[in-house]
Amino acid sequence: MSVAFTREEDLEATAADLPDRPISPHANLVTPAGLAAIESALAAARAAYGAAQAHGEIETDRTAMARATRDLRYWSARRASAQPVEIAPADGRVRFGGSVTLERDDGRAQTWRIVGEDEADPANGSVSHISPLAVALSGKRVGDSAVIAGREVEITAVD
Question: Where are the beta strands (DSSP E) in 8-119?
Fold first, then answer.
């Protein structure tokens, strides 16, 4: 079918049917900072939804309304399922909310903080508690080794 015979409203309607953001089946453990970030995202989603309704964007920009609705559903669900975890004082073991430094076999040292899924940002040194790295290191102590991505690493510090 030629593009000349398509209707712009049909494209807009299709774009407005955004799929929901996937919700993890894992426990939604959050650090205090992670809970604050979820609450901030939820407030922003509520504001975006309210703004879309108030400005009549439902009729003029269905995609904006669909995005706002989708984000509101996601962050509402994440806030409802959040399980805040108080960060316990360091006891020498790798744990949720703590940091771990490891040395790779090529001599590189890396430090990771283990946090909740929504808070994880590997580019900035934080990984989700369900990531293979966090799972492999949880409960270990300085001097222990683990296999990460098929390579052995040694834990050199735990905070």
Answer: 28-30, 82-84, 99-104, 109-115
